[in-house]
Amino acid sequence: MEKIKIDLDLVLPEVPDERDACVQRVIAAMQQHKGIEKAHVVPADEQNSARLCFHFDPDEISLEQIQHFAQEAGASISRKYGHLVIEVEAIREMIEGSAVESQLKNVNGIVDASVSATGNIRIEFDQTATDKATILKEIERQGVKIKATTTTADDHETGAITEDDEDGEEHDHSHAQPGSSPWREYLPAIISFVMLMVGLAADNFIQPSFFTGWVRLAWYGIAYLPVGWPVAMHGIRLLFKGDVFTEFVLMTIATLGAFYIGEYPEGVAVMLFYTVGELFQSAAVSRAKRSIKALLDIRPDTATVLINGKSKVVRPTAVKVGETIQVKVGEKVPLDGVILNDGSSFNTAALTGESKPSTFRKGETVLAGMINQEKVVELQVTKLFNDSSLARILTMVQEATTRKAKTEQFIRKFARVYTPIVVFLAIGITLLPYLFVDNYVFNDWLYRALIFLVISCPCALVISIPLGYFGGIGAASRKGILFKGSNYLDLITKVNRVVMDKTGTLTKGVFKVQEVRSFDITEETWLPLAAALESKSTHPIAAAVVEHVGKSADGLAVNTLEEISGHGLKGTIGGKVVAAGNGKLMQKLGIPVPQEATAISDTVVLVGVDGKFAGYLTIADELKEDAQEAVRALHAMNVQTTMLSGDKQAVVDKVASVLKIDRAFGDLLPENKVEKVEQIKKEPGAVVAFVGDGINDAPVLALSDVGIAMGGLGSDAAIETADVVIQTDQPSRIPVAMKIGRATNRVVWQNIALAFGVKAIVLILGAGGLATMWEAVFADVGVALLAILNAVRIQRMKF
């Protein structure tokens, strides 16, 4: 059995993500060919882009045939499948979002659709059966207003198209309808409530003689219309589209049935409290949406381009790579770019959640979305807006709420089955007693059936569960933690093994001189000589020596420089022969090294001058300030910790000892890290999260159950490969992410238990005639309100 790796770009040109659904289609198509035993994705790393790996029998299929079949399959799939991410005006009700999703899935050519109440729709479609324009028209036909579209159709070429870009008007990221106000939204419920209270007072206390018959019916009928008419219209509209069993239809039938049997106040009350519940839900969704979409509000509206010394204000999407832009104090950075002048301090809170400003100097890269705080800067653009880290993160945030957890998917499917069953049971409760009960009274049994219908409405489940996940994603984003979907919020709760890379994850990845020791020559004499010699090397360890010594080495000229591979440097400075390197170099030059220097476990630079041992410097990578806190918090959550590193085992053991990490493995190549994670995954009951910097560690991030990228804001590989991105580069956010996941999961299951428990009890009482419509209202709207309040708690929790 042999292997061949083919660049993914050759098979699916410009594919945005190696976990795109079309990649799996190519793999499935290729595995149908005789001779190909296995196919899988090799994620992108620092040296290579993502590749498809095929294990094949050379006696049955040739390399040329594999390449031909792969490109043929890729071209066929690219022509057939397209993807859309559509930003819409927020869908007011989650139930309506579920209905829109159901309708879209029934449209010819749409392979899959996911609708989030926060205002995002993700669609995969068959381009041979439909097209983008048809899909957008279908969405608008559902009464949903489109704000922006990101498409990966045809050859997966990615680009954002917004209505604002087309008409040249300013972006408006507000989510309120034009001219709307809270009073207008609440006015129907207020009118119905006042009329209901007056009616109840007339029925039970004032009891005027005229308040009977048609007058009473008309009064309660008028009270019903402000809250009942919109719900009924929703139901009728969906009814004509073939969606019969919806909550809107359920509530309309139940309340009109109450009017039919003369229970007018109860009919108004049910619809009024249902509407109040919807308003409450709308407010809760808006709050969650503000948290989730906080990043979307940092999208820059304009960019000031400098052309021949003159400035021109344009849209960020119009700026090309290599052009120079100017960012004034208080302005958002519109695109990723390198600072050309002296630099400035920038507020990065919108991207990282950290309020402390960061200083960037000439030659350093700043990212779109940061806010300039100190002085005017000029940047050379390094990426197009749609390729910038900000744009990619925005897309990830938009898609996050459309990637639903299994619990949420189950509840949606359950509601679609549960609702019609309850409707037929209600019909049975109304009609079947006629066959078995002697003194059968139709209105009595109809009343019981109506109670049954009201109780059965799955609002509490359909509303509170996605709201809980929205809250979790929002709470995480405020902490600088981006989950790629609510499914990862669920999965991270099961993690019991956290495997961490050392450099860049637990340590800063910046080498510093820890100790300087002199022997035969004074430190003031040999240290500047060592720094002058090391200044001729680009190695990070050499840079650490130069930085430590500072300006005292300036002006020292190095002659006859010799770099001895794997050993170090040798040169002549001011007539003195200076050598700096490892023990092998000292041995090669015949310079005796004391036992003390050879026994050091840290990285060490040994220095010799004119054949004498001058001294040594120990170099170490600094631990991050919160690394110990992170490991301690993981242990408190009963999570085993493992550290992997390419450093020598002695250095790794020392770091593990300081941090109290359970297991530590050093001297590892990237492929060895993959092997270690595979071994850990085979442990009984192990659910593994791997935390890395998202570049060299991309293969391991993809292999783990949950891949967490540290400091992934500027790393394309991290954004593409990881399931969770920690923007702040702080390891202490790992346990925070797990706590948010556990809290979300706990709230979701509390709501499921509450809804099912109360509904089951009141359903039994209602069917037996022991519960009235008022108890039914509590079992439906009351439980929904309690569940919503419980879900909203996540947004207020401190993690």
UniProtKB/TrEMBL annotation:
Its main location: membrane. The keyword Transmembrane applies. It is an enzyme of class 7 (translocase). Coiled coil: none annotated. Residues 147-181 are annotated as: Disordered. Pfam families: E1-E2_ATPase, Hydrolase. The chain crosses the membrane at residues 186-202, 214-232, 417-437, 449-470, 747-767, 773-792. Its EC number is 7.2.2.12. It is found in: Cell membrane; Membrane. NCBIfam families: ATPase-IB2_Cd (TIGR01512), ATPase-IB_hvy (TIGR01525), ATPase_P-type (TIGR01494). Belongs to the cation transport ATPase (P-type) (TC 3.A.3) family. Type IB subfamily. This is P-type Zn(2+) transporter. It comes from Chitinophaga cymbidii.
